[in-house]
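in:
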């Protein structure tokens, strides 16, 4: 369920809960390193988990969160950096492999 309150509330939620990025406005864009989608603060999925807010990528079936988003000017990762990102995001036993989307980024 997406956050349906006033835009000022949405921006406050983004600012308070995304400790990795600065949100100046809801028009700011991020790139999901999991699915490759570029999206704005207007599109971020905001839900409640108990007393906490959860921020998620707006792409259907993409489970990425704030730690897997980058600023648009930084989304072109080198092959080495991309491989390191996927290694860090995969399971500890190495059983998860790179998704087809990661090869497109």
């Amino acid at each position: 369920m997406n956050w349906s309150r006033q835009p000022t509330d949405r921006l406050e939620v983004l600012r308070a809960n995304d400790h990795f990025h600065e949100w100046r406005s809801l028009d700011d864009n991020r790139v999901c390193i999991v699915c490759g989608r570029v999206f704005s603060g207007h599109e971020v999925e905001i839900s409640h988990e108990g007393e906490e807010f959860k921020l998620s990528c707006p792409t259907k079936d993409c489970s990425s969160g704030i730690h897997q988003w980058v600023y648009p000017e930084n989304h072109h990762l080198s092959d080495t950096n991309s491989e390191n990102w996927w290694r860090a995001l995969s399971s500890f036993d190495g059983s998860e492999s790179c998704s087809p989307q990661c090869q497109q980024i």
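note: The longest strand covers residues 45-49.
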